């Protein structure tokens, strides 16, 4: 209540302090749970009779998901198994709601005790894709219904600016006009078959994009269930790593004279001169953003007031 009616200051600094504190708290909690789990295992071993299989499963419970299917350890070590439930590979839960991961991961082996075992990134999760698609179409950050009222109230004008570093695409025009040749962008050449001939007036498309090169291939090697490679270890050092960052190639056609009536098809006079095909190439950059957030009358509005490109994500 002592802050009621006072202006908020140093919000970005406070946010950073809070982020550091939250990560430190989470790391400390995980370490405490692991230590408590190990101590509880030895209490159970000293006080109860367990089969060799149950002992193996109990010691592996925090690392090997397969060990969780041993019924005996639930009967003989209830507290230890409760602690093992905090393992990171299980979903988090808050206010009776399960957290949703932003990434999907594969694994190199079903046996997590194997010296060649590790998890590796596969692709973004479906919830992240849905949220990102929604935000793109809406042109604003996605939030739950009524959030702006909770934050600012219905009769207030709340405006603030934040700065952060995030990915961005830097686009350059590489071709313009019928028959023009598409330039290279750095060391990247346009995809085979991609040219202004695909676009009107020569082609059948008013918009054509190539976005599926390089890292965007879902599968990096021949794998089986759970992404386990079919080849024997050792595995390639680059497995699961982003080795290339492909250019996004986009072709589109614009009207030569937007105020004039356009011909409806290529058989009509003036079709060949009514459109100008263009091609742009976009490279993935790290960038500094300055974004203005405005909550007014229950509406959330955002505006990127400044964008500074720092460097390419992958050279």
Name the shape in a single word: flat
Order of helical and strand elements: HHHHEEEEHHEEEEE
Number of domains: 3
Helix content: 10-25%
Unreliable stretches covering 5 or more consecutive residues: none
* Largest sheet composition: 5 strands, antiparallel
N-to-C terminal Cα separation, in Å?
A: 51 Å
Structural category: alpha+beta
Overall mean pLDDT stands at 77
| Total number of helices | 6
How much is the radius of gyration in Å? 28 Å
> How is the quaternary structure best described?
single chain
User: Which band does the percent of strand residues land in?
Assistant: 25-35%
What is the number of beta strands? 9
Folded structure, characterized:
This protein has 315 residues and is an alpha+beta fold. The chain has three domains: 91 residues, no CATH class; 43 residues, no CATH class; 149 residues, no CATH class. The two termini are 51 Å apart. The model has no long low-confidence stretch (mean pLDDT 77). Keywords: Membrane, Transmembrane, Transmembrane helix.
Describe the structure in brief:
The chain crosses the membrane at residues 20-37. It contains six helices and nine strands.
Note the topology.
Elements: H1 11-47, H2 52-60, H3 71-76, H4 78-84, E1 93-94, E2 97-98, E3 103-107, E4 119-124, H5 126-138, H6 147-152, E5 157-176, E6 207-210, E7 248-255, E8 275-296, E9 299-312
Antiparallel strand pairs: 1-2, 3-4, 5-8, 6-7, 7-8, 8-9
Based on the model shown, name its key terms.
two-stranded antiparallel sheet; 9 strands; five-stranded antiparallel beta sheet; 315 residues; 6 helices; 25% helix; alpha+beta
